[in-house]
Amino acid sequence: MLPWSADLAGRIDEHEFTSELLNDNPLGDPHRRPLWVYVPPGYDDEPDRRYPSVYVIQGYTGYLPMWRNRTPWRQPFPELADQVFARGEAPPVIVVYVDAWTALGGSQYLDSPATGRYHSYLCDEIVPWVDAHYRTLPDRDHRGISGKSSGGYGAMITPMLRPDLFGALATHAGDALFEVCYRPAFPTLARLLRDSFDGSIEKFLADFRGHLAGTKETDFPLIEIYGYSSAYSADEDGTVHLPFDDTGAVVPEVWERWLERDPVLMPRRPEYAEALRSMRAVWIDAGTKDEYHLDLGAQAFRRAVETAGVKDDAVHFELFEAGHGAIEYRYPLSLAWLAERLTP
């Protein structure tokens, strides 16, 4: 294995996608985005054959070229995914790599008046374009979505919001059980705002945009909470509300808006429970030492899936020994599992 690159048995087509829905987004982020489409070995040899598709979405701060990042003695996921099909470990599928980065680090794959229409961009622009330009099986029973962390969050909520498009999902350490994964940090974040920015998120944002990102200890934790708030609790005019006050206590009316988008609680609504029951496959995993306690979120989501009435044989649930990072070796496992269940 070379440390610089590897030849693929399939191929990745790199596109620049022009989004009408992201044009003039509130953050001024680019509306032309990279889009990668992987086709498996043999795709060009059988021009009449159609394939299932799996959409892969990234975690917070993820943007598409990061899929090429290499770690010593390990391979990036696109190469691992290619090996799944080159070795015949699963039926071939088309894999779509989607970019949803924002100036705040991410979008949570939701439509928000503070960030832009990233949910609609994925569902109403990317999916139809891929179906029109590649030989997919263009229906929800042969289309899945997969992601890790915030991407895992998107993989959980997108099929609940659009079960007409997605019939399977895989979530790796996805954001879930907000009371456990987000809320415990609120007092610490309130202190950071108080001690460094007089309690003002606006002062923080001005400071963040005025220096090299990541050079202050306040940078990542505060831009992250502001990014989540922009996705979960922004008003129609784009005003963003933090879910806690200057004491670190939750603001009930804002926190309730967050909980409405908690994947663990969403299935309590009949339409989301019905959407989950329609899934052909649900993969849930996380590391037992996850620093954000997303293993507990995975347990809670597994319970919510069961309560919604999803049959056990449609679910793979697993906790494995690891933290939150460096778990890319898990992604080809769920990809192969989804491929088996999405293939006619």
Task: Walk me through what this model shows.
The chain is 35% helix and 16% strand. It is an alpha/beta fold and 344 residues long. Helix 1 packs across helix 11 and helix 6 packs across helix 7.
Question: Which characteristics define this entry?
Answer:
11 helices, 8-stranded mixed β-sheet, alpha/beta, two-stranded antiparallel ribbon, globular
Secondary-structure element string: EEEHEEEHEHEHHHHHHEHEH
Question: How large is the radius of gyration?
Answer: 20 Å
Structural class comes to: alpha/beta
Could you give the count of β-strands?
10
Question: What's this entry about, in short?
Answer:
The protein is α/β, with parallel strands linked by helices and 344 residues long. The chain contains eleven helices and ten strands. Helix 1 (77-86) crosses helix 11 and helix 6 packs across helix 7 (219-232).
Helix and strand topology:
Blueprint (H helix, E strand, L loop, with lengths): L10 E8 L13 E8 L13 E5 L19 H10 L7 E5 L12 E2 L3 E2 H16 L9 E6 L1 H12 L6 E5 L5 H4 L4 H12 L3 H8 L10 H14 L19 H8 L10 H8 L3 E7 L6 H15 L6 E6 L10 H12 L2
Parallel strand pairs: 3-4, 3-7, 7-8, 8-9, 9-10
Antiparallel strand pairs: 1-2, 2-4, 5-6
